[in-house]
Amino acid sequence: MQRKLFYIVIFILAVGIFSSIMPYPVFSNYTNITEKDMYYINNYNEAELQNINSQKTKLLNIDFSVVDNLFPIDSTFELIDIKTLQSFMVKRIGGKNHLDVEVQDQKLVDTIYPTQTWTRTPILAKLNDYTYVAASLSPYPHGYSSEKSQGHLCLHFKNSKTDGTNKIDPYHKKAIEKAKNKFEKVIE
Length: 188
Known about the structure:
Layout: H1 2-21, H2 24-27, H3 35-49, E1 58-60, H4 64-70, E2 76-81, E3 87-94, E4 99-103, H5 106-112, E5 121-128, E6 131-142, E7 152-156, H6 170-187
Parallel strand pairs: 1-6
Antiparallel strand pairs: 2-3, 2-5, 3-4, 4-7, 5-6, 6-7
């Protein structure tokens, strides 16, 4: 009996030492999953299994240089008008100082903004189900676009600049602040 117990203890120690020296992907002959892949898979599953109500909606306060990479050219995303609480989809078609976007449903946007104007409008740009970025939209179609719309709209974020002056527009800045301040009421 003592001999069996001795062998079991030796076996457990050997497995423990070997597995601590050799990480799982190397230890297993049946997978080529790397440690990095395991991390992403684990985090994905944890997020999927979370209660939706436990996810906290947040507003990112980030600079345009970061936003520029979050919404690459040809990406499609949702905008929410702060005043009407209506949302519509846009596609980024360009822009280097701010985003040039094209609306996906011109008729819907025409109901939200019946008068085409350069007046800056507080907007929320939806990054994903739980993350938004405060923005300012000039809902006046102008310049280049595809056949779908009458032109593109200018979408400004924190520290973005106009093309004409290459400076931060104070009216866009004010509209972005308004969007940030109204965020909690809009998301409820």
